[in-house]
Amino acid sequence: MIDKKWFTPVRFSHLTSHAAVGSIVRDQNDWLMRVKDTRYWSAKNMVQLHAVERVKQHLRIHQKLLLPPTAEFDESVHLKIHGTTIPTERFPSWMKCSQCDLLFYEPWQTNEIGIDEHITCHKCKAGILEQVTWCATSSFGGLLDVPWHKICHRNGETRCVAEREKGYLKILRGDRGKKTIKCTKCGSNANFEQADFKGSAHFQVKEKFGEAHEGGVTYTVMEVNDPRVYSPQNERALVIPPESNIDRNSLKYKLELHSQLINEIKGATRGLQRKKLIKRATSALNCTEAELSEALNIETTTRPSEVEIVAGDMLGDEYLALTTPEDFPEGADFITRHLTQDWVQYIDDLQGAPELQIAARIVDQLVAVDRLRVIEVFEGFSRAASDAEEHQPAPFVPPDLLGKTDWLPAIELFGEGIFFTLNGEKIKEWESNPLLRHRANSIEQRYQNSNIILPEDATTSPSFILLHTLAHILIRELESTAGYPAASLKERIYCSPSEGMTGILIYTAVADVAGSLGGIVELARPDKFLRLFDATLRQADWCSLDPVCGEMEGQGPAWLNRAACHACALIPDTACDYKNVLLDRVFIKGNSALGIPSLIDVMRNTDG
């Protein structure tokens, strides 16, 4: 019997984004695979995240947060692993011959070959079978194999019987390069690209969205890499004090990690059973029975009186934590060093560079974030068919398809970053310019008319567009001068001038609890940050595609960018929380011909 199992490694951080439940991924043998929903995951082998209550309250999550399962290859035995895997299935199920163009359904079921071997066409004996790259999606989250026979014979001119086990359908290139499906039995053919058909509503549609779709839902044929096929929805938040002030080596924290075992000890009614469980716990926690007993007593007596975490505005709370100096315990998951006084002193001591001093005084506070912990929660996904505009907002599909499980997949990342704020009073003065507001309003109107959905904290205010564009150009500058790949960096924008929030956090984070290597936080030193910030402002002044880029009425999705393109302000999608839109360099550099002042103009007028 040929073993048709295969294991493909995937980055941990991808499990809450483009490799999460419902996605189509390509494995190391070049097979396309669909990631199964969490009902098929082994939750009993997954670790629960702790010290995340504030994050859950902010994100309105009541379920437990579990880390996806992990596994390692056994190098000594072929195709053997230690640990737990995430289940997938081959999708699409159809394959096409590279020579005769015939389609075959799940040919691997009848071929006694390994999953890493090619399948030869049994009709022409010459071609290699290749997985088709077309699927059918509905706006309610449905994902199906294309019903090729139905599409081919949708005109109904012949009564041709479907025989899925036989190869009689061909994918050909028709007139003007359009793909067609042709039946070799009756001669019927039809274009299938972007074709619509009615399909029966799958069970989760009927249960989650009611009986209104019993007559079927609309499916659209599209390629698997079409962005409409899969749109993951995840949320991200920092863990801040008091939750971040944990000692991971403490017995109390270890008790939380082994909460299931501790609950079994508390619930044990027989003496022998309790002794056996205590022995397991002391071994797992690396402590004595006396230490365990004392810790359990302390936990029982102190837990009811613990200070309750009151969740307010998530970004507001993070901004307060980032801007407030504090002494942190050793091993805390959130540690900052406030360099504002050093920054001010360094700027005051600059000699012979008045313009540089003026530009530098835009920055109000400078903070090195030596350690941070980021929680990313996968909440579900959506898909879109041709009728997507009729279903707004897009129907949302949870990780288990029905939203009935008591947990969600989440990951924790550890890293470091640079945080700085801009002078709030100067931003208010700058933002009051009516020409700036008019430019921002034009982007607002386009956003309202688009199908793009951004996070709630995204706004089309001049200050947000300014901060967002500045963050992007800073990330690009870090890539070119400090050697950091832009895809490894992330942004976090804190924007609400009326509430005193005008900050940017640029950070890098990895799944390893040890965090990253300390390179980016070193750039928060006043002398190095000044060079970085000055270079960022200079990059905002000029794009290699100017004057075209700088004079564009609109660019990007739904024309939601103005003076911002791949040559100056766009960054990898993984680094941007706002889909690479709401960007415009004019909000930084100004435009004298339009009467729009730059930030430096505002500072210069104040200082002069």
Characterize the structure shown.
With 608 residues, the chain is an alpha+beta fold. Helices cover 27% and strands 21% of the residues. The protein has 17 helices and 22 strands. The strands form six sheets. Strands 3, 17, 18, 19, 20, 21 and 22 form a seven-stranded mixed beta sheet that branches. A four-stranded antiparallel beta sheet has the order 11-10-16-15, with no helix packed on it. It has a three-stranded antiparallel beta sheet with strand order 1-2-6, with no helix packed on it. Helix 5 packs antiparallel against helix 6 and helix 13 crosses helix 15. The longest helix has 21 residues. The chain is flat, with a radius of gyration of 28 Å. The termini are far apart. About 2% of the residues have low confidence.
Describe the secondary structure blueprint for this structure:
Elements: E1 24-26, E2 32-35, H1 53-58, E3 64-66, E4 71-73, E5 81-83, E6 88-90, E7 94-97, E8 103-105, E9 129-131, E10 134-138, E11 143-144, H2 148-152, E12 169-173, E13 179-183, E14 189-191, E15 196-199, H3 203-209, E16 217-223, E17 231-238, H4 251-257, H5 259-267, H6 271-285, H7 289-302, H8 314-323, E18 335-338, H9 340-348, H10 354-360, E19 363-382, E20 407-422, H11 424-431, H12 434-448, H13 462-482, E21 490-496, E22 501-510, H14 519-522, H15 526-541, H16 586-589, H17 599-607
Parallel strand pairs: 3-20
Antiparallel strand pairs: 1-2, 2-6, 4-5, 7-8, 7-9, 10-11, 10-16, 12-13, 13-14, 15-16, 17-19, 18-19, 19-20, 20-22, 21-22
Helix pairs in contact: 5-6, 13-15
